[in-house]
Design brief:
Blueprint: H1 3-19, H2 25-43, H3 74-77, H4 81-91, E1 94-97, E2 105-108, H5 111-119, E3 124-125, H6 151-159, H7 165-184, E4 192-193, H8 194-211, H9 219-229, H10 232-235, H11 242-268, H12 277-283, H13 294-325, H14 327-335, H15 340-351, E5 356-361, E6 365-367, E7 370-372, E8 377-381, H16 382-385, H17 421-438, E9 439-444, E10 449-450, E11 459-461, E12 463-468
Parallel strand pairs: 2-8
Antiparallel strand pairs: 1-2, 3-5, 4-12, 5-8, 6-7, 9-12, 10-11
Helix pairs in contact: 2-11, 7-8, 7-17, 8-9, 8-13, 9-13, 13-14, 13-15, 13-17, 15-17
C-alpha cells in the first residue's frame, strides 16, 4: 500500500477510535460511507477499483514468463492454475509481475522458499493486509493476522483458548450431532447443491457457536464472510459494489456491538463469562476495550468469521470433488475408515482453500536468485507449494494414505499459523465419519462451479446425488 494511503488510513482510525464512545459503531461506518462517496465525487477514487471481465485462460506455454499473472481470479474459476504454477516453479520460482491489476508483486512458488518467507517475520511484514489487493477505500480494518509481533501475539493469545484441546473435546459431541442432523435431512432421490445445504450450513452453525451469535441469524455470518473476502479490489472477487461492503460492515458492527454490550451487562450483573470468542476478548486486558477501537473490532471479527468459514467449508466441498476425481480412493476409504484423519490432511493439501498470504519486505532480501527490494509485495502461494514436485510425490494426485499429507502448508507456518487448524480438522473428520455411516456413494453429477477469486479456492456449486447404504447406485 502506498505510504500516503497508509497515513490516511491511520488518521482515519485515530478519528474513529476517538469518537467511538459517543457515536455508535454502525453509525460511524454509515458516516464513512457518505464521506467516501462525497470524496470520490469531488476528487475521484484514491485507487481505481480493478474491473475484471472473464475470458478464456490461455495455455501458459504461449506466454512469455514476464506476462504470467497468477493474480487473475479467472485462473482459479476456470481451474487452470496448476500449469501456470508448475511453469513458475520450474522456470522462475521467485517471479516478478509488474503489471497486475493489483500493482506489482513477487510470487514465491516453491515449498521451501514459501517456508522461508513465512517463518521470517523479521524480514517480511504481515502488515497492513494479507490479501494481494486493497480493501474498499475507507474500510482498511485491522486484524491480528495482519499484524507483526508483539501486537499480533497479544491479540491472538486472547482468543486462542476457544480452540484449546479441552474445548475441542467438549465440542465434539455437538459437532457430531449437528452433522448427523444435516446429513439425515438430505434428499436421497434427486441431485442437490452440496455447497449451501451441507458445507455452508455446517460452518454457519459452528461459527454461531464459537461467537455465541444468535443461532437463527447464522446465515449472516456466512454472507458477510463471502462478501468481505470477495471484494474485487482485494481479491478479484465478484463483489465490486463497495457501498454494499459498507452496508455489510455497518450491519456487522451493529450486531456484534449489541452482542458485546449484552455480554458486558450480564457480566457486570455477576454472570460467569462464557467460553465463546466475544467473552474471551472481554476477559483479556489487551482486548477488553476492543469495542472502543472500531477498525480493530470489525477487523478481528471479520478474520475470525472468514477464517472459520472458508477453510472448513471449501474443504468440505473439495473433499467430495477429490473423491469423484479419484474414485479408487473412496473405495480405499470404505475398506479402511481408519484412514480418515490422514485423508483430512490430504483433502486440505489438495484443496488448499486459501491460495496465498501476502507479505511486505522489511529490507532488501535475496531469494531464489532475485533481489526483493524493501517495500515490495511478496505473495506466498500455498496453492503452489502444496503441489511442489520437490516436496510431494505425484502432487496433483489425491492419495488418502499419502505418507507426508500432514506436512502441507495450507495452514501456514510460524507465528501466523492458522489458529483454528485443529477445529477445522475435527469438523472434517466427523463429517466423513458420519458420511460413511450413511452413504455408499456420493456422486458429483455436474462439473463443479468455482468462485471468482485469487484468494479463496472455493466452490459455489457442487451438484451431487447420494446412494444410501444398502442400495445400489442408480
Amino acid at each position: 500500500m502506498p505510504t500516503l494511503s497508509k497515513t490516511f488510513d491511520d488518521i482515519q482510525s485515530r478519528v474513529i477510535n476517538a469518537t467511538s464512545r459517543v457515536v455508535p459503531m454502525h453509525r460511524q461506518i454509515q458516516g464513512l460511507k457518505l464521506l467516501m462517496g462525497a470524496k470520490k465525487k469531488a476528487f475521484g477514487p484514491r485507487r481505481p477499483v480493478p474491473e475484471f471481465v472473464e475470458s478464456a485462460i490461455p495455455d501458459v506455454n504461449t506466454l512469455a514468463l514476464e506476462d504470467i499473472d497468477v493474480s487473475n481470479p479467472f485462473l482459479y474459476r476456470q481451474d487452470q492454475w496448476r500449469a501456470y504454477f508448475k511453469r513458475l516453479r520450474d522456470e522462475a520460482p521467485v517471479h516478478y509481475q509488474k503489471n497486475s491489476p493489483f500493482g506489482p508483486f513477487w510470487s514465491v512458488t516453491r515449498f521451501e522458499d514459501i517456508l522461508f518467507v513465512d517463518k521470517s517475520h523479521d524480514l517480511f511484514s504481515a502488515e497492513p493486509q494479507i490479501i494481494l489487493g486493497d480493501p474498499p477505500e475507507g474500510l482498511s480494518v485491522e486484524m491480528f493476522i495482519a499484524m507483526d509481533p508483539p501486537k499480533h501475539d497479544v491479540q491472538r493469545s486472547s482468543v486462542q483458548g476457544v480452540v484449546a484441546p479441552k474445548n475441542l473435546k467438549e465440542m465434539e459431541g455437538l459437532i457430531r450431532s449437528r452433522t448427523g442432523d444435516v446429513l439425515d435431512s438430505l434428499p436421497l432421490d434427486k441431485p442437490f447443491n452440496w455447497v449451501p445445504v451441507v458445507s455452508k450450513e455446517l460452518t454457519g452453525r459452528m461459527l454461531a457457536t464459537l461467537l455465541d451469535f444468535p443461532y437463527e441469524e447464522r446465515h449472516k455470518l456466512v454472507e458477510w464472510s463471502d462478501r468481505m473476502a470477495g471484494a474485487a479490489s482485494a481479491t478479484g472477487g465478484e463483489y465490486a459494489d463497495e457501498e454494499i461492503m459498507f452496508d455489510d460492515a455497518a450491519d456487522m458492527a451493529w450486531s456484534f456491538s449489541r452482542l458485546w454490550r449484552d455480554k458486558e451487562a450480564r457480566r457486570a450483573a455477576g454472570e460467569e463469562p462464557g467460553f465463546d470468542l466475544i467473552s474471551l476478548l472481554q476477559s483479556n486486558d489487551e482486548t477488553k476495550d476492543l469495542i472502543n477501537r472500531p477498525m480493530e473490532f470489525i477487523g478481528n471479527l471479520t478474520l475470525l468469521i472468514v477464517g472459520g468459514n472458508d477453510t472448513t467449508r471449501n474443504s468440505m466441498s473439495g473433499g467430495l470433488v477429490a473423491m469423484n476425481e479419484f474414485p479408487k480412493e473412496f473405495k480405499k476409504l470404505k475398506a479402511k475408515p481408519e484412514l480418515i484423519p490422514n485423508m483430512v490432511s490430504e483433502i486440505i493439501r489438495w484443496q488448499t482453500p486459501l491460495a496465498y498470504m501476502r507479505r511486505i519486505a522489511k529490507q532488501d532480501v535475496e531469494l531464489g536468485g532475485q533481489t526483493i527490494k524493501k517495500g515490495d509485495r511478496v505473495v506466498m502461494w500455498y496453492a503452489s507449494g502444496n503441489r511442489d514436485e520437490r516436496k510431494f510425490e505425484n502432487p496433483d494426485q489425491f492419495i488418502i494414505d499419502r505418507k507426508d499429507a500432514r506436512n502441507h502448508m495450507s495452514f501456514g507456518y510460524g507465528v501466523h499459523r492458522c489458529m483454528g487448524n485443529r477445529l477445522a480438522e475435527l469438523q472434517l473428520r466427523i463429517l466423513w465419519e458420519e458420511i460413511l455411516k450413511r452413504f455408499d456413494n456420493i456422486e458429483v453429477v455436474e462439473e463443479p462451479k468455482r468462485v471468482q477469486s485469487n484468494f479463496v479456492r472455493g466452490y459455489s456449486e457442487v451438484m451431487v446425488k447420494l446412494t444410501p447404504k444398502g442400495k445400489k447406485a442408480g
